[in-house]
Design goal:
Elements: E1 3-7, H1 11-23, E2 28-32, H2 36-49, E3 58-61, E4 72-75, H3 80-86, H4 93-110, E5 115-118, H5 123-134, E6 141-143, H6 146-160, E7 168-169, E8 172-173, E9 181-182, E10 188-189, E11 192-193, H7 194-199, H8 205-213, H9 215-223, H10 228-242, E12 247-255, E13 260-269, E14 272-275, H11 283-300
Parallel strand pairs: 1-2, 1-4, 2-3, 4-5, 5-6
Antiparallel strand pairs: 7-10, 8-9, 10-11, 12-13, 13-14
Amino acid sequence: MHKIAVIGLGNVGTTVAHMLLMAGLVDELVLIDKNEKKVAAEYNDFADAFPRTAHSAVIKQNDYRELADTDIIITAFGDIEATNRTGDRFAELPINKQNAREVGAKIKESGFNGILINISNPCDAILGVLQQATGLRYDRIFGTGTLLDTARMQRAVGEHFHEAPQNVDGYVLGEHGNTQFTAWSTIHIDGIPLTQLADEGKINLDKLSDKIRQGAFTIMVGKGYTCFGVASCAITLVESIFTDKHVFLPVSLFMERYGCYIGYPAVIGAKGIEAIHPIKLTPAEEELLDKSTATIKEKTND
């Protein structure tokens, strides 16, 4: 029996809940949001779909007591309009800091001892607040972080070479935000280093970096929010936990070296963060990672 809670039923949280149900990944689903009418509406809408779907689940509404025996909590609260207005995920920091403190306290009070996956922005900074509020071990609280940005990189590189994005491997690291960067030394397509193809004049890495970084805002200009990409990242993490997959993915995790959460690869399995293996970066990439973490710490401490 798999029990999951989604806290925050905006566009992203609702999409996550929908994907969990359609994939049959959850037997009990707890839906929590400050807007009780929204929770009731989503509950009834999902229930209407069950007679026509392959999977269904028991759905609980707005009851933090249900978290005591929940396996995974996914936090997706936020104010997307703040990001839309500014083009900066840190615009959501003031309201989400408060949300994280309030939600974190209730999670702790419930006796929850599972794994928490955060989506709320700014993802890295909010994870620090949630960890302090919940008291969860660092290996059991992490976020989607640059897993989404890495998917955008795979898409962009794949499209450039007319290849499937799954043929592209490597990582986008750092903040899930403006100071993120593609670690080009780690990127391969069909096993060929992308830096080699760049040296041969087959791709412009600077132009591609800008395209990857601006991927979210291209979507937001068109519909005001993103949901499917980041929700699919959350589902990937849930599957990795429930199947004890031990897959190496870039997520937002706490690194002692920096003293904060940051996008970096880790082994994800049944226990959450199973291991963090240092990856070899160029001196320039190490400097970019240093700058990105400094930004997160500076803005978080404002």
